[in-house]
Amino acid sequence: MIFMAEEKKVEKKEKAKKQFKAYKPGRMCPKCGKRMAEHKDRTSCGGCGYSEFKTSPAQAKK
C-alpha cells in the first residue's frame, strides 16, 4: 500500500532528472574572454557589454 506522501516523493525524484542541451561552441569575447550570446542581429557579451553587429548582404550593398 502506497500512501500519498510516498507518491509525491517519487514524483519529485523523477522531476529532478533534467535533460541538458549539448554544448554549442560560440564566439569568445576579445575583451574579457567569456562566451558571447548569439542574437538575430548581433553577438554580445554579458560580462563587459562588448557587441559585434552582423550585417546581411542586403545591408552591405547600401
User: Mind describing the biggest β-sheet?
Assistant: 3 strands, antiparallel
Kindly state the number of beta strands. Answer: 3
Q: Helix and strand succession? A: HEEEH
Low-confidence segments: none
What portion of residues belong to β-strands? Answer: 5-15%
Regarding quaternary structure, what we see is single chain
The dominant shape is elongated
Give the strand line-up of the largest sheet.
Answer: 1-2-3
- The portion of residues assigned to helices is 25-40%
Output the structural class. alpha+beta
Could you describe the 3D structure shown?
With 62 residues, this protein is of the alpha+beta class. The protein has a domain at 27-56. Helix content is 29%, strand content 13%. It is built from 2 helices and 3 strands. It has a 3-stranded antiparallel sheet with strand order 1-2-3, with no helix packed on it. The longest helix is centred in the first third of the chain and has 13 residues, at 4-16. It is elongated and about 70 Å long.
Itemize the secondary structure elements and their pairings.
Elements: H1 4-16, E1 37-38, E2 42-44, E3 51-53, H2 57-61
Antiparallel strand pairs: 1-2, 2-3
Main features:
single chain; 62 residues; alpha+beta; three-stranded antiparallel sheet; 3 strands; 29% helix
Q: What is this structure, in a nutshell?
A:
By secondary structure, the protein is an alpha+beta fold. Helix content is 29%, strand content 13%. The protein has a three-stranded antiparallel sheet, with no helix packed on it.
